[in-house]
Amino acid sequence: MKAVEINEYGGPEVLNIIEVEKPAVDDNNILVEVKASSVNPVDWKVAKGMLKFIPGQKLPKRLGSDFAGVVAEVGSNISDFQIGDEVYGVISAIKGGAYSNFVLAESHQLSIKPKNIDFADAATIPLAALT
Questions:
Q1: What is the pTM for the complete model shown?
Q2: pLDDT greater than 80 at residue 63
């Protein structure tokens, strides 16, 4: 799958699209096929190196926290989401990884996407709504 990663801090010029293995689902998480993701202030601050003082900020670094997509796989302990559910959610920007074809999430990081909102609009909501 494709993912966005940085090997140095900076602006858009440091973004690299790389090929990586699709994340493996364990018993307690959900694999989402990402249809849209968005950029919020914490994402560009991570890319610029403004948050490198926070533990876990080592290079290379995958980016992205807000996303919307379709549930592709669920762990055996997951009962609140099913394959095919349209969802939106947020993962930690410190962990990153939403700028990719697939992202792993936990149940508490996802919600069912309202039918009247498309994926692109849904991907702009999670962190802003939490804030």
A1: 0.93
A2: yes
